[in-house]
């Protein structure tokens, strides 16, 4: 959502609830300490997603359902009185979800038309000034030329939607295209909100959590004036594609997202005719693609021309924490924007520490208060409440939920305020929470400085809080958020993940109540990119999902707003495994010049290399494609818009093919940027095109020498440069890339 009154743009930042065992929404939840129920059920019955061979040709939806019933025990009602058959799938794959005992599952597996079964898992949710930050200005340039995404349908798999919100008004939005086949069950349906249905058992699509309202308004919410969260971030809000249509599939509750419901939502979205699928959710760990119903279902979606955008996860900054890492997914990492909700701590020694606060005091007192810090009570858990009265407590953040209670106890005991500082891993990332008290959040470095000041000044350590509300133009930005999950993928290290960086820290977007809220997470970054994909789809309706992904990746920014490299949460140079190809740049993505395209056949060859015939049958489900007939395509040789090679002192060559989507007559010259330890040769060094749609193939040979034994990867880049375009691809040499296909796990 774009804040035009103050040049602010409101977009959602939902942070992942890190304590869910598997699948969840990807946002930084204030209830992150809440433990979700495990997928392991105490009953003898468990829920399974079962893949089977399709019914005879010509079967309608009811015919599929009857076919699936033939795999089940004769009793279609379980001991609990609930139907065994919970979901029937026709689009994502041929299969169903059912409640079965282990003995019954064994019996189902003996059916010769049985393929695979997966225990249902609980996924996690990975929860504005951002349009302006992304270069989108109302009434001008690319945004206007793209019609704000008109004619494109964005489907979201989330917690539902608060349909009455003004972000979902349909002023200026035309009726949906004729291809739309969906239905809308909400308190208000119109040309903006054209689809709303629940796959979680209730009859309505109402959003009791808020996450789905936030993400959908970020992707495609309409313009709303006077938006703010309790007075901060004031301005006009809009989604990235405010002219696009929204279809909400409620597949999650506040407790998380059952994988079977997510797949059911994906199945319905494909059937209904969406153009973009946005999933701000994921599992805690990456699994083999043949064991991942989300990856399998997404493959069916991209096979039908639907681009699928997913959250990278909120388990950063741990390496190899990436989720949603299948090559056919567009995986989004989270970064900051150039806006802060400024609050300062002015010390008695004259020094000033910049922090942030959501609860801004309009008339703060200038009275200095004693500062109190104790190593014994470092985490705000001061049991001697009598000692905190009238003092500002300095303490280190833990989990948001624990923090709420600890800070509330301190304030009840008479504390004048709290300075909450990050732990070392969080660094410079300040993910704001409204503690409903005089709380200023600061970085880990500033927290250490404050603690030192209280120790050296003893009883003379005092401080005054200052508030400056919303500040724009903050530098450096963007910065990769600490919580954003990192690569490389443990399943497919030869394909760079995450793909792209987008705004995900302290994002303002629609909420049931209050009407706008600031939250953080890769959940918030994902709908930004979903909105960009919708804009590109509106301009180029014939482009494949791979072409749209390539356009977004190869035109992304690698520099920040002070002309240096994008930084991570420690303010070190961010690597490709932190930020992907770079930070999304919508206007440039609409006109990339060249694209790296991929077809179903290309992906099938890759799946044959990685997972063999069984993987191909499970994921691709196309009887005309077999691994015997297909060339096995190594991960490093996949026609991906980023290049990954083995880290080795011997030459290694990869090939790529680009398609001209720019001017008919154009010439591109290769430009390599690499460290001294990486030598890169490109052949040919010039690509000459004479028509649109023409394809050219080139090779890239990489040699790495003098690399330390402790270095896991080395990074450079290749850019194809014409008079009008720069088409940039990271080159990452990493240990283990291109190794022979691993033996699939059971």
UniProtKB/TrEMBL annotation:
Main location: secreted
Residue ranges annotated for the Subtilisin-like protease fibronectin type-III domain, each copy included: 637-732
GO cellular component: extracellular region
Domain Inhibitor I9: start-end pairs: 47-126
InterPro entries: Peptidase_S8/S53_dom, Peptidase_S8/S53_dom_sf, Peptidase_S8_Asp-AS, Peptidase_S8_Ser-AS, Peptidase_S8_subtilisin-rel, Peptidases_S8_3, S8pro/Inhibitor_I9, S8pro/Inhibitor_I9_sf
Domain of life (superkingdom): Eukaryota
Peptidase S8/S53 domain span: 149-560
Signal peptide segment: 1-24
UniProt GO BP: proteolysis
GO molecular function, one term: serine-type endopeptidase activity
Active site per the UniProt annotation: 158 (charge relay system), 211 (charge relay system), 523 (charge relay system)
Keywords: Glycoprotein, Hydrolase, Protease, Serine protease, Signal
Protein name: Subtilisin-like protease
